[in-house]
Structure to design on (1002 residues):
């Protein structure tokens, strides 16, 4: 392969595709998915309970979803994981295979744990005791920290002011 | 609740208007197909769990001690596990506990339909509960053609949860409670108390009554029955005036259980929200939550395997302790029977023995007839069981004293007598 | 744990180097002032809770039934509630349970110091536990000059949690367990099992032994003692070979409790993290979590009032059921004593009565000596209690049968005898 044959039809096709993508991205606000706003995650209504509970919990003013749910070692792992997770979420959502209970898998638990420590390093330095493996999650104790009183409630009456429980 | 909560406004206007107390659930189902579809599933459910589930397995076969414990009472003939709501009518008509001889003063009254049909709210409204209850089961049968349905729990039109059973209304009133002021979350428990409660038939009119005047704890219910001088039957050859307990889920659960104190309701576990495409609705397919723990428990507990494991641990311990109480009761019954057969028995001591037998067996039954094998309130279950065993042993001892014969003290009679 | 976990690296280098098994906690405290300061607080704590707390109130005064239950054994002379770790030495030296007459074959052995001092790890290393235990309490006293401290739980240098008591190591080995492979979270419970466990002194060398070969459930421990033919004392006038249970918190908590199954450790509740400026550290001020429930329960349970209320509900039910078991035991003891005094008693039946008395009382004691009034494992507590009561009543019945005398069946003797 010495000369890359850029024929006109190919170029035109690429241009059209680029334009189509551009329009798609512009009209659908898809670029938002490259950002970090919590509201973006909430675009999916299946994320709504998490959003509601997050919004009413302690971190609303400090952290976005991505601050906890994406790795922050470097920019590559950040965007790689963002792409991977995003594709997964979209795939599952659009194929209608959304499970009854959405739960963080082990891989994302590791990511979240890393982020807790990233922000709270100073606080937990003494008890983390350096690189010693920490065999439980921060939210085993701080059960309310991310998504409300009892872990993640997906039942509407518990997170909606429309339905006061008592 | 009624007073505090406005009728819900719905995005979709109802397709059809539903008459007040409409007995036919299919009509309501036009407006609410998800709820109606899920309710219909209760008819064919038959998955079993370790200690319960939806098949009508026989308790008398599973635990033959109960044949002895209920001797002389219809429950010794036929006692099955409960099935889904849509089977209520079929099952009440099929049970061998019925006495359909209308000439017999012990004929089964219409009252037995009280918790089995969506026709009831309309009938009670029409004729009043006293009149309803005074009829015989046979006489009532033609009026009853729907199993449990929407009208047992909901007000047509507003769809609010309501107390439909006059006996519940009266029992709450007797305690100075007004259910129309309850919160929505409270109603999600109280609506089950229309039926899942201990009851008795008061007087010759067989008036449906919940024995709650002194409170809903087991000792308060016993004290109520003492005051009323009520008994369900007399134990053959022992002469004990017995009490039968029936499905006191409500009384059990609300007696300071972990979940009740935490504000959890019956509907949270037995009618969890499920998804139908985008919308959520309460599953009306009511059954053991162990069949769908992801939905029933997972909304609150992130580790579903863990909580299901806990249920097993709790139920195992309760089941073992319950059997020990039954063995003690059977020993006591044998002793009392022997003493009663002895003409020289000290009547006062023997009566004391009977009083303890009555109390012990009601306590055991309160726990046993409660359908969660203790899970609804584990500490209460075990505490009651400990007390029932203690009292049963004391009953046995009193029987032996009444005839001055220590040979009545044999234990483990269930295993040794043929 | 040791095998899986690298030694800790710390941001701050230690200020001083600590000798292995250093008994003086103050020296460790130079490096870790927060931990040391909080440990020292255990010396002066004296807030009480409904059923426990940090004052040394007398159980024998609070519940005089126990004077009867421990008759003939030193526990009937002096038995107080436990206090904080820094008092261990003072309290073991002050108790009237000691027998300091070295000529007496029943003299108190050095083994009683095993769980009271940070000198032990060094002494055991130096002389071996067999030699340590063979000495008398008196003889050991000069070697012991520190209460419980860092060296009882930590490895100097790395600060890792370790098993320091050879008896625990041996008991785990007997079950085929290797603590060095445990996770950190497991160690946060196991480190308490150095002391908060049932134990006995094996043979004339008074060798400290945990009776776990068959397992750590109460029936497995009883079966172990049966096999060993061990007994702590003989009940006066009844002749029952008795067993005394002591603080089996570890066995109790790990027997499938809610919290243990959920992966919660002793340290989570009794040594919650507290803040020192920005950083947090484990509070070494170990006491009842009801004194600081905000910290002890609040991170996991956001509604602290609710969980504290639950503890009260659970403890109340356990306390009542426990007293009922004690009453049954006292009735049994009276009956056995009367039967034993009767020369015509059927020896076989009487021995059966004693066997049940032995078992029933150990079960009750297992729950009673466990210091949480059931909270560590409510269902287990109540199940054991129910069984103890049942067995005690059966013991009484057998005693009556052995002399063919129903007058031994009197109940409530605790209330009627002077
Ligand atoms: Ca059933
Ligand atoms: Ca204490």
């Amino acid at each position: 392969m010495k000369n890359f044959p850029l024929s006109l039809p190919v170029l035109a096709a690429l241009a059209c595709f680029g334009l189509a993508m551009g329009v798609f991205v512009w009209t659908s606000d898809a670029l938002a998915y490259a950002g970090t706003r919590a509201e973006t995650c909430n675009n999916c209504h299946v994320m709504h309970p998490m959003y509601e509970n997050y919004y009413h919990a302690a971190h609303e003013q400090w952290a976005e979803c991505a601050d906890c749910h994406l790795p922050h070692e470097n920019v590559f792992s950040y965007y790689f994981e963002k792409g991977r997770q995003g594709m997964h979420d979209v795939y599952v959502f659009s194929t209608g295979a959304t499970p009854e209970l959405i739960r963080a898998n082990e891989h994302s638990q590791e990511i979240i744990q890393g982020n807790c420590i990233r922000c709270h390093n100073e606080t937990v330095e003494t008890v983390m005791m350096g690189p010693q493996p920490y065999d439980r999650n921060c939210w085993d104790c701080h059960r309310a920290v991310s998504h409300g009183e009892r872990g993640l409630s997906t039942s509407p009456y518990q997170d909606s002011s429309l339905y006061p429980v008592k | 609740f009624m007073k505090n909560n406005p009728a819900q406004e719905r995005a979709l206007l109802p397709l059809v208007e539903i008459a007040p107390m409409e007995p036919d659930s299919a009509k309501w189902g036009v407006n609410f197909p998800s709820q109606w579809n899920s309710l219909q599933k209760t008819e064919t459910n038959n998955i079993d769990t370790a200690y319960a589930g939806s098949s009508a397995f026989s308790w008398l076969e599973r635990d033959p001690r109960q044949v002895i414990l209920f001797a002389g009472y219809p429950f010794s003939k036929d006692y099955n596990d409960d099935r889904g709501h849509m089977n209520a009518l079929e099952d009440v008509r099929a049970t061998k506990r019925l006495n359909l001889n209308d000439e017999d003063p012990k004929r089964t009254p219409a009252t037995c339909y009280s918790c089995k049909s969506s026709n009831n709210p309309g009938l009670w409204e029409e004729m009043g509960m006293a009149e309803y209850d005074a009829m015989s089961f046979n006489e009532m049968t033609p009026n009853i053609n729907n199993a449990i349905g929407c009208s047992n729990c909901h007000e047509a039109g507003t769809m609010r949860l309501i107390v439909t059973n006059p006996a519940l209304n009266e029992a709450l009133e007797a305690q100075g409670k007004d259910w129309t002021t309850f919160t929505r979350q409270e109603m999600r428990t109280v609506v089950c108390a229309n039926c899942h409660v201990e009851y008795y038939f008061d007087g010759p009119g067989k008036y449906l009554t919940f024995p709650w005047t002194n409170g809903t704890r087991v000792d308060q219910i016993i004290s109520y029955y003492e005051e009323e001088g009520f008994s369900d039957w007399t134990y053959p050859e022992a002469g004990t005036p017995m009490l039968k307990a029936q499905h006191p889920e409500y009384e059990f659960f609300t007696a300071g259980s972990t979940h009740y104190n935490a504000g959890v309701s019956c509907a949270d576990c037995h009618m969890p929200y499920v998804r139908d495409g985008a919308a959520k609705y309460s599953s009306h397919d009511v059954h053991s939550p162990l069949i769908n723990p992801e939905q029933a428990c997972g909304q609150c507990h992130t580790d579903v395997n863990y909580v299901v494991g806990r249920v097993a641990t709790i139920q195992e311990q309760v089941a073992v302790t319950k059997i020990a109480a039954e063995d003690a009761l059977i020993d006591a019954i044998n002793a009392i029977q022997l003493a009663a057969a002895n003409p020289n028995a000290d009547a006062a001591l023997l009566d004391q023995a009977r009083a303890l037998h009555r109390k012990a067996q009601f306590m055991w039954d309160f726990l046993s007839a409660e359908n969660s094998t203790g899970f609804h309130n584990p500490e209460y279950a075990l505490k009651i069981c400990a007390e029932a065993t203690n009292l049963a042993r004391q009953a046995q001892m009193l029987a032996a004293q009444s005839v001055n014969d220590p040979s009545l003290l044999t234990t483990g009679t269930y295993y040794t007598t043929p």
Remarks:
- The first helix of chain B runs from residue 25 to 31.
- Chain B touches chain A through 19 residues (CB under 8 Å).
- DSSP finds 19 helices and six strands in chain B.
- The mean pLDDT of chain B is 95.
